[in-house]
Amino acid sequence: AGVQRFVLVSTDKAVNPLCVYGASKLLSERIVLDAQAKAAEGQDFMTVRFGNVLGSRGSILPLFMRQVAQGGPVTVTDPAATRYFMTIPEACSLVLKTGGVGQGGQSYLLDMGEPILIRELAEQVIRFSGLEPYKDIDIQYIGLRPGERLEESLKSDEEELVATAYAKINRLERLGGAFPLAEALATLKPICIPDGAAPEAYRNRRALRAALRRFIPSVEDYSDEPEY
Q1: What is the pTM of this model?
Q2: Are 3 and 43 in contact (CB under 8 A)?
Q3: Which residue out of 13, 25, 97, 135 is catalytically annotated?
Q4: Portion of the chain with pLDDT greater than 70, in percent
Q5: What are the respective helix, strand and coil percentages of the chain, to the nearest 5?
Q6: DSSP secondary structure, 59-89, as one string
Q7: Helix (H/G/I), strand (E/B), else coil: 153
Q8: Using a CB cutoff of 8 Å and minimum separation of 24, what contacts does 33-38 make?
Q9: What fold characterizes domain 5-176?
Q10: Whether the Cβ atoms of residue 50 and residue 85 lie closer than 8 Å to each other
Q11: 23: which of 17, 48, 63, 172 fits an S-S bond (Cβ 3.0–4.6 Å)?
Q12: Which residues lie closer than 8 Å to 79 by C-beta, 6 or more apart?
């Protein structure tokens, strides 16, 4: 198709993933980096990882604003929960810059600054609406859901951060051994794509989690999760 540069936008959920979403992001990173070895001359495949984008579709800020507009309560998983945040303009500009200056076969990590307490973000949204937290609008703690952490990490213990010549763009250097990507994809294929030889595997939740845990042990095991 004439594509010369491909940039996968990934997320901190790919770091030691607990859930299927995070595992799919990690596998996506591996697939894109593997594509570099098969790329034509002049083609570059790279990944860029960062945290949450404030105000994007599905992000927590619009949810808090809706909850305040409805009179509350504002729901937070845990009073100690933190996340990394970046604005939409900053994320867009840094992703585009990474695509322009990045090298094929490399993973990049955007500098997200310090993590923010979700509780404090909720309090600020309430105050910006001219109301008082816990007085006019209550904050309700609902507990961590399956696959969620109190804190997110931007890199794993098997990754080292290397500075680049560009502000807020760092390179991730993998220290661990080779990942068995071909074997992982072959195992996952009949679960994701109908296969006459193994029809019972198609869209089987338990088979999916078992396969993911085989290659990504951090994925949590919900062996008692019902089929829907």
Answers
A1: 0.88
A2: yes
A3: 13
A4: 96
A5: 35, 20, 45
A6: -HHHHHHHHHHTT-PEEES-TT-EE-EEEHH
A7: coil
A8: 33/105, 33/106, 33/107, 34/181, 35/6, 36/104, 36/105, 37/105
A9: Rossmann fold (3.40.50)
A10: no
A11: 17
A12: 117, 119, 141
Cβ pair 20, 28 in contact under 8 A: no
**How would you classify residue 42: left for phi > 0, otherwise alpha for psi between -120 and 50, otherwise beta?**
left
Q: Is the pLDDT of residue 86 over 50?
A: yes
Residues in the chain: 228
pLDDT, residue 201, reads: 87
Residue with tokens 């867009």: 92
The rounded Cα 72 to chain-centroid distance in angstroms is 28
97: tokens are: 């810059």
Q: Is 135 a catalytic residue?
A: no
CA atoms within 13 A on the CB side of 189: 10
Query: Token pair for residue 11?
Result: 């997320």
* Span 106-160, pLDDT tens digits: 999 999 999 999 999 999 999 999 999 999 999 999 999 888 899 999 999 999 9
CB 49 within 8 A of CB 10: yes
In the chain, where are the structural domains located? 5-176, 180-228
Show the tokens assigned to 75: 């729901």
